[in-house]
């Protein structure tokens, strides 16, 4: 496992105990990055995830259960990460939540929670990671936005606002560090079959009394011309490219991987 491109680097991936975050964490670990996992879940399963990742890829792993809606917990997570690994070289801001309702019916507390977790948490992790990256003159910040960072859908005001905000934060971060070895980019996935999306599939199947596969297909084709889900592994490969020397001049980009969604 020598001569891997990220050997000696440490990656913090928020919301990485499942779904997109886990796919990205595994892709980075496969190229030698130590991984700090973050997210919710069963403690025993998370411990097993850490051990399996360390054993499979020959890297160091750690875990923080920091609640990404709480700045104090984010700061503690970053302090512990730097104390343990020396720095956070790769920051992947992936944690996110969703709620669907029209604006006039949107619960205020849901709006506040979505903005806090989907957008404000990325500001806090970024501001705390940048000093060490600037000292080392190397860093990669990857913000997981969404096709909804580029276009909108009804009923998703908070999510769309937060993801458009992430794209804006990405651009500013990239510009402020444009003459350094630090890059910042956003990945904008279309439909990915995460636990969050599976709930939407299940709800559609139940509401319309149709099979799950039909519900999946209908959900996809409303937005995603390919009719296929983007996979966490594909997103992990894109994240890995953005960490590479080949992507050193990819800066401030919102890169959609969406089966043609935004091309329409």
């Amino acid at each position: 496992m020598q001569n891997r491109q990220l050997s000696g680097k440490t990656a913090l991936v928020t919301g990485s105990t499942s779904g997109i975050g886990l796919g990205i964490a595994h892709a980075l670990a496969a190229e030698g990055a130590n991984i700090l996992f973050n997210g919710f879940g069963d403690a025993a399963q998370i411990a097993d995830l850490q051990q399996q990742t360390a054993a499979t890829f020959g890297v160091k792993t750690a875990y923080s259960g920091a609640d990404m809606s709480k700045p104090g917990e984010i700061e503690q997570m970053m302090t512990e990460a730097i104390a343990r690994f020396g720095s956070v070289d790769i920051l992947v801001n992936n944690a996110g939540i969703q709620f669907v309702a029209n604006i006039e019916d949107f619960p205020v507390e849901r709006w506040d929670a979505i903005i806090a977790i989907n957008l404000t948490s990325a500001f806090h992790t970024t501001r705390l990671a940048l000093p060490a990256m600037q000292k080392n003159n190397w860093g990669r910040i990857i913000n997981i936005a969404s096709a909804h960072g580029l276009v909108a859908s009804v009923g998703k005001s908070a999510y769309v606002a937060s993801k458009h905000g992430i794209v804006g934060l990405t651009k500013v971060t990239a510009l402020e560090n444009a003459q350094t070895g630090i890059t910042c980019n956003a990945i904008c996935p279309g439909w990915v079959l995460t636990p969050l999306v599976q709930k939407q599939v299940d709800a559609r199947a139940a509401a319309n009394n149709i099979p799950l596969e039909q519900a999946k297909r209908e959900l996809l084709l409303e937005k995603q011309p390919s009719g296929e889900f983007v996979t966490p592994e594909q997103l992990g490969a894109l994240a890995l490219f953005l960490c590479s020397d080949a992507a050193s001049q990819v800066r401030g980009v919102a890169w959609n991987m969406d089966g043609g969604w935004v091309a329409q």
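The domain at 10-190+230-263 is CATH 3.40.50.720 (Rossmann fold). The longest strand covers residues 182-189.
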